[in-house]
Amino acid sequence: MHLGVILLAGVMSSYEKFKSKYLQFDDSLEHIIDQYLVWVNDDKYMILGKKKEIDFEYFAVKCSKRGNDVYRKRVSTRFNEVLFGVDDLRFFNRKERGGQKKTRALFVTLTCDTKLCSWEEARNRVSNDFNRFMANVRKGFGGVSCVRVYEASSRGYPHIHCILLFDSFEFNVFRGQRGKFRIKSKSVFERYWHSFIDVQGMDCIGGGLGYLRKYLLKGCDAERADSKGLLTLALTWAFRKRAFSISGKSHRILNELSEEDDLDEDGQGPGSVFVVIGFVSARLVGLEPDVWFKQLDVKWVRKWVFGDTVGYGEEKTKGV
Predict the structure, then answer these.
(1) pLDDT confidence of 306, banded at 50, 70, 90?
(2) Per-domain residue ranges of the chain
(3) Backbone phi, then psi, for 219, in 5-degree steps?
(4) Which distant-in-sequence residues (6+ apart) come within 8 Å of 251 by Cβ?
(5) Residue pair 183/198 in contact by the 8 Å Cβ criterion
(6) For residue range 54-69, what is the model confidence (pLDDT) as tens digits?
(7) Which CATH code, of 3.90.226.10, 3.30.830.10, 3.30.70.1910, 3.40.605.10, is assigned to 69-257?
(8) 170 within 8 A of 103, measured Cβ to Cβ
(9) DSSP letter at 271?
(10) What's 40-77 look like in SS3?
């Protein structure tokens, strides 16, 4: 069997054991955070091989792990694509007094009542609950796009912050307390959710996405996160939830923006083939945490990755 495949298969087997180890936690939120910090601070590098004329070149690429610097950059970049890719639709002038104001965009926060269930059950059911909520919204108001992020409460319960952009339905809005704009049909949305819900009418899309981005960034940086941000990271890691999701027309916009030119590191375009050799600890590679990409010495790879002096893609000489 191909040596690279053997190595990769072995790593994946270890990864399954790793998941089993870290997800068998007790009921303590503190324990989950401790386990998460052990995991995220253990930097891993992916070893890639690139075929040359008679040999291979080898590279170490830092892996993205929820909450590390690579992950933070990826999440921030993808969400910025949403910010800059979606037109800043403006529905009304919030500074104008009087007159009927309408909007097709709502900023919604969904909470979980602690009396209904434990935080573990709330975490396990939150995706199904939200899907049911969105199905009812579409049934009641027609087509709608959604951008959603999670936030953990201090007791571990999930809160959902989302922007709903309706295809055609318009809501009448009025200025409520603290200058926030409310909708008169909030009670309809309350019937779709089991706990407290907050609904605000948005005057424009850009400002709402910027506000949503603040929630997102609080929960994607383990190094700078406050206590709530760290708990959000640990629980989304433990329950394998995405940092944010996009559905509807916004999802198609993001897909279009995510199409990148197929270029290698030399800008030569298609043709270069990289083979995944396996994954190693940063301690073994000897790289500092701020190094994301580095070409490796062939002799080092042969010794530490393959365990002998034969490079990947080469044949051993008979009798050696």
Answers:
(1) low
(2) 24-66+262-304, 69-257
(3) -115, 30
(4) 145
(5) no
(6) 778 889 999 999 999 9
(7) 3.30.70.1910
(8) yes
(9) T
(10) HCCCEEEEEEEECCCCEEEEEEECCCCCCHHHHHHHHH
